[in-house]
Amino acid sequence: MSQSTVSSTATHKGSGKATKMRYAVAFMLFLTVVINYMDRSNLSVAAPLISEEFGLDTAQQGLLLSAFGWTYAAMQLPGGWLVDRVQPRLLYPICLVLWSVATIFMGMAGSFVALIVLRLAVGGFEAPAYPINNKVVTAWFPERERATAIGFYTSGQFIGLALLTPVLLWLQHALTWHWVFVVTGAVGVVWGLIWFVLYRNPVDSKKANAAEVQYIREGGGLVDLGSTKAKSAAPKLNKADFALVLGRRKLWGIYIGQFCLTSTLWFFLTWFPTYLVTYRHMDYIKTGFLTSLPFIAALAGVLISGVLSDLMLKLGASLGTSRKLPIITGLLLSMSMIGAIFTDSTALVITFMSIAFFGNGLASITWSLVSALASSHLIGLTGGMFNFIGNLSSIATPIVIGLLVSATDFGPAFIYMTVIAAVGILSYVFLVGKVQRVQG
């Protein structure tokens, strides 16, 4: 932006000490992620009762639990295309309301096929969510604060799951599994309308003054992303764009790494409650409490990760070290879940799971690498490809585990998850290399 434009903005917004509107935006993203993951995980809460009502075997359960992932992954590239062209203020509430309405109808489904179809709809409409999150945080935060912001809003997935999973299990116990979907969907519809009313891009916001906008810009924030004042038309996608997004080794490093990281997350979002109920023979109320413990550990991990990463950067560590070290360490810790194979103690099982999910949380600042590596005009497309490949795990993990486990032995699932985490470590170590923005 030219100096004259900055002066004009200052005249409009006033001058003086920089405002802190970006923190309010981070809180809005946090609440959106809470709702997003509540709608991803509600099926795992209801899955045992749904399976009982419809007489589903483990392979069918795996298919139902993976249905979200089919459309969620398939729509990442179209979603990324939309994110590069439609303002977050408009695109996010449209997606929120549509996936929430589909969630409400899941509570009214009367057949296995209806549940599959509606879950496919939820996945498709949620697809642009994380590329939008990345676009918003890239616009609103300078590089030195971005990992903390990403860690904060990402913590919403764990806070929501840790605190709300017991509530949803209680709701299911008090009423029926149908109400789990009706209530979570209704919350999403309301929040979609609130987002539309409140959200603005940095240069469009009346709450962020010129000093804050300039602070963000000078720190590497792309303050014009998604602005109504942007004069240039969105570029058309071409073969060169796809060649750039698909042809760089360091980008493939984060794509593969994200698949491995989200595999652990999707284990906890799909099979973990069933593992406790079916293989550990716990009742639903106790399961709700014990399920929340690993999510609390993951929350601690993701909050530590963002702050630690930005602190390392401020103390002089390279951008690559600051971003990759927490991710690699987290993947290493997530391998601890294999310990569950070797004990019959419920306390030790939950301990191993909590360490593993703490590691998953510690590694969950991977979107900071998308912000740092993606070409500035392809933030959405790169984020879409990153999320597409990463969330193929939402398809693979439920199905592979459903095929690997037997009615009495869950051990092969833990072996699979450990191997996947090891592949993720190798990807970040050998493929990503120096962290710098891809030019093209």
Strand content: under 5%
Q: Which term fits the overall shape?
A: globular
Total helical elements: 20
Helix content: over 70%
Transmembrane segments: 21-38, 90-118, 150-171, 177-198, 252-272, 292-313, 325-342, 348-374, 386-407, 413-433
Keywords: Membrane, Transmembrane, Transmembrane helix
Domain Major facilitator superfamily (MFS) profile: 25-436
Subcellular location: Cell membrane
Task: Supply the key terms.
440 residues, 20 helices, mainly alpha, 76% helix, single chain, disordered N terminus
Can you give a write-up of this model?
- The chain crosses the membrane at residues 21-38, 90-118, 150-171, 177-198, 252-272, 292-313, 325-342, 348-374, 386-407, 413-433.
- Keywords: Membrane, Transmembrane, Transmembrane helix.
- It is a single chain.
- The chain is mostly helical and 440 residues long.
- It has helices at residues 3-13, 21-54, 58-74, 76-83, 88-106, 112-126, 129-140, 143-174, 178-198, 210-218, 239-246, 249-270, 272-279, 284-314, 319-334, 346-362, 367-373, 379-390, 393-404, 411-432.
- Helix 2 (21-54) runs antiparallel to helix 9, helix 4 runs parallel beside helix 7 and helix 5 packs antiparallel against helix 7 (129-140).
- It is globular and about 60 Å long.
